[in-house]
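Handout, section B. The chain below has 291 residues.
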Amino acid sequence: MNDPRIRYRPRAAATPPAAGERLQKVMADAGVASRRDCELAIRAGRVRVNGRRVTVLPCLVEPGALVELDGVVIDTRRRLAIKERERVYLMLNKPRGVISTASDPEGRPNVVAFVAPAVPQGERVYPVGRLDADSTGLVLLTNDGELAHRLAHPRHGVAKEYRVTVQGQLGPEILARLSKGLYLADANDPARGAKRARPERLRVLHQKKDRSRGDLSLVSVTLREGQNREIRRLFARVGAKVRRLERVALGPLQLGSLATGHYRRLRTPEIEALKQSVGLHEAAAASRPAR
């Protein structure tokens, strides 16, 4: 007999496992996509773990869990051979009009296709960070998921330097406003309100007077944590139009004289410097057992 004093509640949905590895890391290590793109797929409801749709992060999964993306089972067994995989680190000088994603529904050229000849068969590389289609310069592509994640994560504050050609002369007042920082609305989520954008460093490298084409200023801008199209939006706020934007450095990695549209493998000292900049060597040392 049912007791009216007792309120019955529907059975709660299963909760994510309390132990294991982060779902987006498991997917990225299995070669699905970059960790950031895996996070977006999860939040969009495209991923199931053991038959249950996951939309909230963090979600930890245990070894042997059944992970599906859009109904297709992901072979997570590939992760067992991660240490034996050939690590690929490539630097591309991205041309204008090329997008910084692994694929594009519109069929536009992408950075991954540019470096495809240097990627071993069966492997995938993903770009670290994004450059919009109109921007050029340094793009790092790698299959080292942990390094890519740390370089892109705001917590590590990896510096990115850009050379920006701006229409007009930049006077002291404009430079002071930019250096102080301006509030920019979140283009993807206006309800979140404006967020302050402030360059880490701002230097005018050269100013050119040209009566026929208009004055131009070449500016070096360094960011630690970038918003979507932040540099273009910052200059637009002070009435200066960006004519050209090129990324020339990512942490200790320098673009140098690499020609537009060309790529090369990173040298061992460059790889070591990148890992050092995000504390990977310290993390590896801390995980080793004491002797």
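Note. DSSP finds eight helices and 17 strands in the chain. Compare this with the example in section A.
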